[in-house]
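User: Can you recover a sequence for this backbone? Please restate the input before giving your answer.

Assistant: Of course. Working from this structure:
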């Protein structure tokens, strides 16, 4: 059996900009992407804490160290600079992979500074 699990989560990031006239995607500071384990062009789900909007798109590298979180294309209609969002990526695991899988959780502070990083295990899942 294959099941879907959390792979990576960037919690409470702040939207820094939006670009409606841009090919759709979500720009994320490249350093933050690396820390969270999100690859360029990987599908991500975005949950806007501020207004409740939810959407899927793909991640693109923003400038490393810029702390950018930018809504591009149609996604620009789902939020505004200053909104707090959650960015998540999921993965498919076989039953054999579940016991060793960990999800990377990155919690953000003000100005998109990384607050905490933790890895959550699935070992209690049967």
């Amino acid at each position: 059996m294959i099941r879907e699990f959390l792979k990576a989560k960037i919690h409470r990031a702040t939207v820094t900009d939006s670009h409606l006239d841009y090919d759709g995607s979500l720009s994320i500071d490249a350093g933050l992407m690396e820390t969270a384990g999100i690859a360029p062009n990987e599908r991500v789900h975005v949950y806007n804490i501020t207004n409740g909007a939810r959407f899927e798109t793909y991640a693109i590298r923003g400038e490393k160290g810029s702390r950018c979180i930018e809504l591009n294309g149609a996604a620009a209609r789902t939020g505004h600079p200053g909104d707090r969002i959650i960015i998540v990526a999921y993965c498919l695991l076989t039953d054999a992979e579940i016991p060793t899988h960990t999800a990377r959780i990155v919690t953000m502070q003000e100005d998109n500074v990384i607050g905490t990083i933790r890895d959550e295990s699935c070992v209690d899942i049967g």
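That completes the design. The helical segments are 30-36.
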